[in-house]
Amino acid sequence: MFSKQQPLAKKITAYTFAVSLGIAFMLHGSSAAAEPAQKAVSQPVKVQKKNNLPKGFVYLDEIIPTAQYEIRYFSENNFTGSRVDGYKAPLAIFSQVGAKALKAVSDDLARKGYILRIYDAYRPQKAVDDFVAWSQDAADIKMKQQYYPKLDKRNLFKLGFIAKKSGHTRGGTIDLTLAYAKTGNLVDMGSPYDFFGEISYYNTSLISTTQHANRKILKDAMVKHGFKPYSKEWWHFTLIKEPFPSQYFNFDVE
């Protein structure tokens, strides 16, 4: 199941986004609600990869080095307000088949002046279990205003924003958006990543024509290269021909 560990772990520089405890930052270029006026600050962080991935998985930064990687579940800036179980490094891991398809997406979008910003790829089952435990703690609502201001957290599974069995855990689902290659600023999609509400539905009527057009640029590129969109989350795409369609993994992101 697991590939042989390489003799020496490879050191890379990953870019994460510094966030003060309990304070979220503003996504560049987004006019959506629920993002406080806090500027994103990137800082280089040395990450030593374990290089002990199961066969068929790869580190995405090695396939798409031009992308931005903002792994929210490694930080406290996510809907739980804490680092999620299983995220031991700010790395994006994906199936090798999915990575190849995503590289084709990236190449197509580069010709139009865009780069990808990746928020989440492979997700351990223990992380999903962590989400379930979080949802059952009704007293913990510290991230409610930013991520789910109009919803009861206990209903997030029923409403389809979180799943107890996720395509991410199969290594076939990716969460991402677009940024401008020249500036690194995010393209305005009308709502922030992981914002739970109708405004995040792909066909919502709550965003502008320009924001719809921006979402379509991302969707069209992803669909062209074999990904299926999810109607309730404009950032969420699943590879149609998954290499592990019924296998849920639980190895750490490290």
Q: Describe it for me?
A:
Residues 1-34 form the signal peptide. Zn(2+) binds at residues 168, 175, 236. It catalyses: D-alanyl-D-alanine + H2O = 2 D-alanine. This is D-alanyl-D-alanine dipeptidase. One of its GO terms (molecular function) is metallopeptidase activity. The structure is a single chain. With 254 residues, the chain is an alpha+beta fold. It has a single domain, classed as Muramoyl-pentapeptide Carboxypeptidase, domain 2, CATH 3.30.1380.10. Helix content is 20%, strand content 20%. It has helices at 60-63, 96-110, 125-135, 144-147, 209-224; strands at 11-18, 41-48, 57-59, 68-69, 93-95, 114-120, 173-180, 227-230, 233-239. Strands 4-6-7-9-8 form a five-stranded mixed beta sheet, covered by helices on one side. The protein has a two-stranded antiparallel ribbon with strand order 1-2. A two-stranded antiparallel ribbon has the order 3-5. Strand 8 (227-230) and strand 9 form a beta hairpin. The longest helix has 16 residues, at 209-224. It is globular.
